Amino acid sequence: MVRLHGVGKRYGRGKPVLTGVELEIPRAAVIGIVGTNGSGKSTLLRILARVSAPSSGTIEGAPPVGYVPDRFPASTRMSALAYLRHLGRMSGVSDVDARAARLLERLALAGGPRTPIKQLSKGNAQKVGLAQALLTDPDLLVLDEPWSGLDPAAHGVLGELIADTRERGASVVFTAHDEEVAQQHASRVFRMADGVLRESAPTVRIVLRGGGDVPWTEVAARDGDQLELAVPAERVDKVLLDALQRGWSVLAVAR
Ligand SMILES: Nc1ncnc2c1ncn2[C@@H]1O[C@H](COP(=O)(O)OP(=O)(O)OP(=O)(O)O)[C@@H](O)[C@H]1O
């Protein structure tokens, strides 16, 4: 659906932020991007959302996009509902009022849909941002750190909205600071570093009890006679067999 090839970005005369990003986004994919502050995640998402142009490289495919920037910027006296109605009408959404009200209710917007946007907290403004991005059922949903600022209840709803989007055949690209959150929601996770994306292998959590040698480098935690390992998916069978042979009991294996 979208294919980025050798995408680079440089702001003015500064050092390039992106140097050669390769990324393929097929239909019904959920792609998570992690990376340190300033590594260029937001820059890449702005390019995907087409609010910024790359300095080099090519982008194939231009599906309709819904975009939530890292800070939803609307500061208006309009209510959340009036704002969404306005955007929906501009985009030709037919049942805009009902759709907007449904989305805001699902996201549990504090104060209800008639609250003026400029009075909303960061998290609640973020919910209006999510609603505007979903209003048109875009083929590509681009979410910049959508978990930041949301309360735990809204985290669950966001996970459902991402899953619903994938189920209707659309794709989602999001950034996250927490790799575990990214692995939980994405079908593939990439790490941004040195201006390029590298796929980050999913890890599997193995909890062992008992005792014996600990020959593994992947120890995540140790508590009394329990040992927790975070193991790359392709090593799970080998580590489990090894653990049993060394006298450990397997308490849990989870993604
Ligand atoms: N409009 C701009 N003009 C000049 N430099 C910019 C601009 N936007 C971003 N940058 C620079 O590009 C680099 C990457 O920024 P970007 O916001 O893409 O990183 P990020 O990975 O999203 O960071 P964070 O995790 O802190 O959100 C930073 O050094 C930043 O200062």
Describe, in plain words, how this protein is organized in 3D.
The protein has 2 domains: 2-199, P-loop containing nucleotide triphosphate hydrolases (Rossmann fold, 3-Layer(aba) Sandwich); 203-254, no CATH class. Helix content is 30%, strand content 29%. The protein is built from 7 helices and 13 strands. The protein has helices at 41-48, 80-90, 96-106, 122-134, 152-167, 179-185, 236-245; strands at 2-9, 18-25, 30-34, 56-60, 65-68, 140-143, 171-175, 188-193, 196-199, 203-209, 219-223, 226-232, 249-254. The strands form 3 sheets. The chain has a 6-stranded mixed beta sheet with strand order 5-6-7-3-8-9, sandwiched between helices. It has a 4-stranded antiparallel beta sheet with strand order 11-12-10-13, with helices on one face. A 3-stranded antiparallel beta sheet has the order 2-1-4, with no helix packed on it. The two termini are 28 Å apart. Adenosine-5'-triphosphate binds next to helix 1. One of its GO terms (molecular function) is ATP binding. Keywords: ATP-binding, Nucleotide-binding, Transport.
